Amino acid sequence: MTMRKFRRVGVLALCVALAAGLSACAGTPPTKTSRTNDPTPSWASPSVSPYTTGKKANISYGPNSAQVMDICYPPTRSQTTGAFLLIHGGSWSSGDKSDFGSLCGAVARLGYVAATMNYRMFDQHATYADMLADIDLALATYTDTARQDGWPISQVALMGASAGGYLGLMYAYTRQPAVPVRFVVALSTPTDFLDPALIASADDAQYTELSKLLGVDLTKESIDARQAALKAASPAYRVTKGAPPTILAHGAKDTVVPYTNAVQMASRLSIAGVPYDLLTYPNSDHNLADDPEVSNRFLSLVLSYATQYLA
Q1: Whose CB among 108, 247, 249, 261 lies 3.0–4.6 Å from 72's, allowing a Cys bridge?
Q2: pLDDT for residue 30
Q3: Does the model's pTM come out above 0.85?
């Protein structure tokens, strides 16, 4: 299995675990799933759809075919509505909004509007700046569409895994959207491209990925000359005092993104005085699949943040 494929499959397994866990928190018995077989939980099938008031699929938020999103609505309305925007991973070159499809429905069942988005990737010659611009467009369409459907969104949480978590952090720390980002959740996320552990472990394929992400030519030999670009593109160096509260989840045995990235990120948040939680998965690699008790605490923490910041 290639590293890139491992990233995709790992994130899929994680998303299924999250969706099943959130379903359990909502009062539905959790569904046993296998990490090696069909990862779709039974309650996500059409016969037991979690969408009570409806799901809108493939909403266009821009002229590019990659600029589409799905929106999931809760079963009951409220005066003000908090919302989640889910951002898939996949090394900025693969993955799909459907990776978070089950979680989108589970979040809606808890009373929040949820959306899962596609965005332009490397095959569209997109850099991280282009991807952040896509989040801008997606949020504008998200809020407009939800309002027209009778769901006025007043605030949003961003949640992403791996490459999607990176985009969520960068967006939350560097943009001023029309709808406030109240907190951000990042799982197995690269946060510091100057981390010596990451630089030491990177291979040619990862340098190629970083070159595409930043829009600059980057090799192991040119790393010193590109430090300014790498720093500007690292969430760890974009934290300010007013940054949104942040949840980090990371495996201590992550072979894709070193755990030191999460530690460095937590340190920066602490120095800036930003509320944060770092949940360490001591036995898990990039997919966070080997510490179910930590996953339970993570799910409770996300719901706690939602209650506090999306009220």
Answers
A1: 108
A2: 38
A3: yes
